[in-house]
Amino acid sequence: MFKDLVALTKPRIIRLNLIAAFGGFWVASKWHIDIPLLIWVLIGSALTMASACVFNNYLDRDFDTKMARTRDRALPQGRLRPSFVLAYAVILGAAGLAVLFFLVHPITGWLGLLGMFVYVVIYTMWLKRNSTWSTSIGGVSGAMPPVIGYCAVTQTVDEGAWILFALLFLWQPAHFWSLAIRRREEYREAGFPLLPVVKGVTRTKWQMLPYIALLLPASILMYQYGYAGRVFLILSLAAGAVWFLHAVSGLRAKDDEKWAKTDFFLSINYLMVMFLVMILDTQGV
Asked: For residue 138, how many other CB atoms are within 10 A of its CB?
């Protein structure tokens, strides 16, 4: 049962988003780290994200029976009762928001609540079942962690918060679509109207390009406004250019599965490299 409770929170998603929250906190702190505050930010963010993921599992439990990737989860298999999972989601969310509102700063609590609302209500309950825009609009929730980390320190939403938001918001659609291309038949069978399912693989590849391209000016703004140094600028632009060129090569790729697998790998590594270098090359050292 414990293993299923952990799996419901989607630990891999939480891990990636905690790295982003840590990065946002570090950028705002400029190496002058308030350790207790950082710990509360990570705890509150983790609990809030975990709650959103459990709500997602609860709401998608019928659809999950239709996909090979998800049909072995606890709810489709009947290992946990839906009412128990719903209560679990509510408790995690209440705990996470309480930490953000009362132990970090009210602005981080509102940001966490906004992220949860977009992911659970706008994305999971509405767009995921009805529109190809689900991936793009759902990116709002995924872009919250670095903003929460940043605003925990600054206690305001300024240009730094917006740039961090842009970096994560732009990264997500291209990242997810590379996965969706590989699993499009599963999503089609389950009834999810994702872009590769509705518009096709070629249209999806074209739509990935502007998102990846816009990451480049977002990286420049991080440097221009003094939030990261020259090393970050060079490496982030280089990594972004490599990803963009590979995405362009997909327009001529004969093996979509192989191309999408490599593109997914590049997207993950782009995010990891970008935030690692951002942390190490934060201005104000």
From this structure: 20
pTM over 0.90: yes
What's the whole-number mean pLDDT along residues 253-262?
A: 94
In Å, what is the CA distance from 101 to each residue of 51, 66, 277? 16, 38, 30
8 Å CB contact between 100 and 112? yes
Indicate if the pLDDT at residue 72 is higher than 90: no
Sign of CA dihedral 219, 166, 105, 87: negative
Q: Is 31 helix (H, G, I), strand (E, B) or coil?
A: coil
Look at the domain 158-285 and name its fold: Four Helix Bundle (Hemerythrin (Met), subunit A) (1.20.120)
Q: What DSSP state is assigned to residue 69? A: T
Q: How do the domains of the chain map onto residue ranges?
A: 1-157, 158-285
Torsion of CA 43, 46, 48, 51, to 10 degrees: -130
* Nearest-angstrom CA–CA distance, 220 and 266: 20
Rounded Cα–Cα distance for residues 185 and 67 (Å): 9
Instruction: Please choose, from the candidates 283, 150, 137, 139, the residue with its C-alpha nearest in 3D space to the C-alpha of residue 224.
Output: 283
Which among 255, 272, 169 is positioned nearest to 212, based on CA atoms?
A: 169
The CATH code of the domain at 1-157 is: 1.10.357.140
DSSP secondary structure letter of residue 126: I
Q: What is the largest CA-CA distance in the chain?
A: 54
Token representation of residue 23:
């990065």
- Top pLDDT among 63 and 267 is at 267
CA 233, CA 241: separation in Å to the nearest integer? 12
DSSP code at position 282: B
